[in-house]
Structure formats: C-alpha cells, structure tokens
Design goal:
Length: 594
C-alpha cells in the first residue's frame, strides 16, 4: 500500500506519531481518508455544518454559495460586527464564494453617508474584500413593484389606523390579535392609497402598508406586519425620490433573494423573524427559483462595554467620549485608533467562535489577542511616564550612542541607535531608598542594569523641602556596557530598567485608557441607567518623555514602551507635539484587581 503522510498531516487532525498506528488499523488509504474527513467534520462549527449538510443533501451546489454582510449605516461598526464580518467573509474564503457588502439603508432618519464610509473603511482595514457593494435602496423600485403585486393578489393592504391602535390590536403571545377594520379594503382603493403614499400626497403616519397573513398566529411577527411607512425625509442616496420606505423584514429577505444569497446569517434575536423571512421570499419567488436560507447565531457580548448603537450614540452626544472613534469606544474605528491590529481583532473573533447561546466574553481576552500580536510586530522603544532625574556622577563623556534591538521576536527588525548621557530619566517607581530582597529595581547600595547600557549602583538622593526625591545619584561601571563582551558586561544583576537621556528626550502627551465602564454588564441592570456605570477614570492624560527616534513616528504606528505596555501614535499627533494612546498594558492589570 502506498501512503502519503503529508496528506494526512495537512488536515492537522492526526498527529505524526499516530500515522503508523493508523496504517496498521486501516487496510487501505481510502479508509484512512474517510477517518480523517470524519474527524474534520467534528471540528466544524454549527454554521459550517449547516452549509456542509446543505451541500451534501444536493439542495445546494458549491457554486450556489454566496454570503453577505448587511450593516445598517446608522452608526459605526463595533466589536460585535467584527465577529459577523469575520464569519461571513471567512466563509467566503473557506468556500471560495463571493461575499456582498450590502447596506440595509431603509431608514433615512438615522442613516448617513458618514456611516457608510466608516463601514467600508473598517471592513477593508480588517483585511476583507467584498464581491459587490450593494444597497437596499438599489432595490426600492423592485420592492415597490412587488408590493403592488401583493396588493393585487390580496396579500397586502393599506391600514389607516394610528400606530397605537395597530399595536393594541396585535394581541399578546397568549391572546390572538384583532383584524384591522381596513383589512378588507378593495384592491383598487389599496392601490390608489399606496400610490398616494409613494408620491408624498399623504402625511406621515396617516397610512401604512401591511402584509395580510394571520392575526391569530402564535408568532406575533406574522400578525399582519408593516411593510411600508411614510417618511418625508431625504435619503442619503435617493434624495427626495421616495416618500415611503420599506421595513427591515420586507427589504432584508427580498434583497437576499435579488442578490442570490445562499445563506443569510443573523444574530439570535432574528430567529422569530425567520418564518416571516420565508413567507415574504415565497411571495415573490417561483418554486423553481433558488431561495436564500436564514440561520441564526448568538451574539458574543464584551464585558465592561456596550454595543447598542443607540447607547454608543448617546455617549458621543453627551460628551462622555470624544467621538465614535474615541479609543475607549468598542467601535472598530476606536479600536484601530487605540492601536489594535486587524490581525488581533480577527484572532479574537476566531477564538470566541460562533454559538447558539449568548454569553459575555471578558475584555481581557481581547486585550490578550492584542498583546499576542503586538509582541510579534511592535518595535521596542523606551519611554518614561513618571520621570525622576538620575545623575551618573562618574560619567565623564558628553554623550554616546548605544545599539538597541528593535524586536527580539523578529530577527529581521534590526536595531537602532539610542543616545546616552550623564543625566537620565527613569520611572519614579523604579527606585526606593531602601527595599526588601524582592525589590529588583534600583535602591541605595545595590546594582541594576540600564537597558542596552551599563550597570549602575545607587549612591545618594537629593530631596526638596517636602522630602520628595528630586534626583538620584549613582555610579556606573564603564566596563559593563551591554554587548561589549567584557567579563563585567556578563555580570548578573537582578534588575533591568528603561530610561531616556534628558538631553535628548522628547516630551509627549500620553493618554492612558482604561475600561469605559466599571461593571461587567453596564446595561444589564434594568433598574439603573447604564450611564451610572461610566468609569470616571477611563482616561488619564500625562506628559511623558520618549527617546528621540519617535519624533518622526507616523499616525497609528505601534510600539512597545519597554516594561510599560503597547502604545500607538494618535491621529492628532504632530512632530511638534507627539501624542500616544495606550493600547494595552504589558500584563492584565484587571486580573490583579479581581
């Protein structure tokens, strides 16, 4: 029997040491392949399993597969959308199938071109490309024509009741609804009123178009749902052409049908809408035509934040954050500005997967994904955020330039030169006049290494009138230069400190961001306003000092400030005034608080 272990290992199901075992068990390679495929099938998430089952039953061919990401342009995308983007575009990559970016722009009251542009920018930044850029507004005429046909077929009617009356007649989950007194209007009257609505001849709220389904249905969404309402507001694409706009449930499934979407994935709250989705699609399609399938997955909520667009908009409107792209916001643009990488967000989405039950993902997991990615890619630099002056009393040179490695995780990252001089800044917390044996930083009478430089020993301090330390005096060993190869340079000391030369230091505004809310689920308490839980300490602005190599850093460039955390250059930064945003600390500080 011929056997290719390479093929087996490509599946990443069977480990190398198991290969011989499986050769002994299976008498032919086909049986082994079948075993591998069975193992791979077990690893599929339930969404992928749905697609595989559809392909296996013969109802779908691989060339039929087509997906879409359908945001409403009424706000900026947030981390929850990132999971949906990753799901839909990831399926497109897995099955080599097209994925449309379709804007469900059916509500001109809340939608703006600014949001359209931000959504396109976010999807592209995450690394995905759409097959077609589509809009529900592209289909307004077709949707209207289908609605007219439904009126003619007795499947829709114009209701002239108030919204309050319609809501009262809906009934309850345990009580049937009541039919509208306008339900049996003639086709002619319905057509005349519907055209008047379209032309703007009737005031807002005077009429709606409703589907005629079943007011006794156990699914309340099937109790004659509204298809159109009058809105006399200009649309961001169609301007004043339309005075009526389709409701989401009417436009969504029909848009999927028009675009030949095979699988329409929605979050779990749309599960009751599936019956209506199918009913509408059946009304406009023929039995032999390909029909889209709606399926649902659970939201993954993120701790210490909110993802409601309405509530995010309130944070902006009330001035609790600077803007939609404030680095404290869970929006994709906010995460980008804070310094998160596209890869870290994709990895986060992949790691939490898709499921059938809602749950809360701790924000620390997203931060972990950022650290893991930035550790591999971010250049190491030195910055001091709470400076105290360090004077090397026996250093006689004017200055010297030392070699510093850019990233030990990347052998191609190279190195840079950093200036060193007699007077330096170090972190105030890195020095104590006296300390126990577990304090591995600078203290009087003990030695530490200055990163990329020399071993120093604490000798004395200078204090102001209030007893605050203003200077630390130390001596250095001139033979202990890092990388020099001398015996002194190889001497082991227990601490290494970062520093910047005062003479060469560049002042920078540093924004230290923390969690936006103080509790895990700020909008879970129905008795309290979620705004009560806004963290008053979610932003601290300080002045730090960084090495001169950062003076020309560009917007969104990311760095690891050694021993402190990961930072990126804010969009407001200039060469005259550097501004850095803290992405994440080097370690999870909230784990300590817990």
């Amino acid at each position: 029997m011929k056997f290719s272990h390479h093929l087996v290992l490509d599946y990443k199901i069977i480990k190398p040491f198991e290969v011989i075992h499986y050769i002994l068990i299976f008498d032919n390679f086909a049986a082994l392949q079948e075993k591998i495929m069975a193992e791979e099938k077990k690893s599929l998430n339930f969404i992928e399993q749905i697609i595989e089952d559809d392909l296996a039953t013969g109802g779908y061919q691989k060339e039929d597969l087509k997906f879409r990401f359908p945001p409403e342009p009424n706000g900026y995308l947030h981390i929850g959308h990132a999971s949906s983007i990753n799901l839909n575009f990831g399926l497109g990559l897995r099955y080599n199938a097209p994925v449309n970016l379709r804007f469900d722009d059916t509500n001109p009251i809340k939608e703006e071109k600014e949001f359209v542009d931000s959504i396109k920018r976010d999807v592209e930044w995450l690394g995905f490309k759409w097959a077609k850029e589509c809009y529900a507004s592209d289909y307004f005429q077709q949707l209207y024509d289908w609605a007219v046909e439904m009126i003619k077929n007795g499947d829709a009617y114009v209701d002239s009741q108030t919204s309050e009356a319609i809501a009262n007649q809906k009934g309850t989950p345990t009580e049937p609804g009541k039919e509208s007194p306008y339900r049996e209007r003639s086709v002619e009257e319905n057509l005349e009123l519907f055209e008047a609505m379209k032309n703007g001849d009737t005031p807002e709220g005077a009429h709606v178009l409703r589907a005629k389904i079943d007011m006794t249905s156990s699914n309340m969404l099937m109790r004659d749902p509204i298809m159109y309402r009058c809105v006399h507001k200009a649309h961001h694409r169609t301007n004043d052409k339309w005075k009526i706009y389709p409701m989401y449930d009417w436009a969504h499934g029909e848009s999927d049908f028009i675009e030949s979407i095979s699988h329409s994935f929605c979050t779990l709250e749309f599960l009751p809408h599936r019956e209506l989705y199918n009913w509408f699609v059946n009304k406009v399609s023929k039995p032999e035509e390909f029909q889209p399938k709606q399926r649902e997955f659970a939201r993954r909520n993120l701790s210490h934040t909110i993802v409601s667009k309405r509530k995010l908009a309130q944070l902006v409107e009330k001035g609790l954050v600077e803007s939609w792209d404030d680095p404290r916001m869970p929006t994709i643009s906010g995460l980008r500005r804070r310094g998160y990488t596209p890869n870290s967000i994709r990895k986060f989405a992949e790691s939490i997967g898709v499921g059938k039950r809602e749950n809360i993902i701790d924000l620390s997991h997203l931060e972990f994904c950022a650290r893991e990615d930035l550790n591999k890619t971010a250049p190491r630099v030195m910055g001091v955020l709470d400076p105290v002056k360090l004077v090397i009393t026996n250093y006689e040179k004017e200055e010297e330039w030392l070699e510093a490695e850019n990233n030990p995780e990347d052998e191609n990252a190279g190195s840079r030169q950093v200036p060193f001089s007699k007077e330096l800044y170090i972190e105030r917390e890195d020095f104590k006049e006296s300390a126990n044996r577990k304090f591995f930083r600078l203290t009087l009478g003990k030695e530490v290494r200055l990163k990329n430089a020399y071993i120093i020993k604490g000798e004395d301090v200078v204090k102001d009138e209030e007893g605050n330390i203003t200077e630390i005096h130390c001596t250095y060993d001139p033979l202990s230069k890092s990388g020099s190869g001398t015996e002194e340079s190889k001497r082991k000391v227990k601490g290494t400190l970062h520093w910047v030369s005062i003479k060469h230091a560049v002042a920078a505004e540093v924004r230290l961001y923390d969690r936006l809310f103080t509790v895990e689920a700020p909008d879970a308490d129905k008795e309290k306003d979620y705004l009560e839980f806004v963290n008053p300490n979610s932003l601290e602005v300080i002045t730090g000092y960084v090495e001169p190599s950062l003076k020309e850093a560009k917007e969104l460039e990311q760095f690891q400030f050694q021993r402190i955390g990961y930072f990126c250059v804010d969009q407001s930064s200039t060469s005259e005034k550097l501004v850095f945003n803290r992405t994440v600390t080097l370690r999870d500080s909230w784990a300590k608080k817990k």
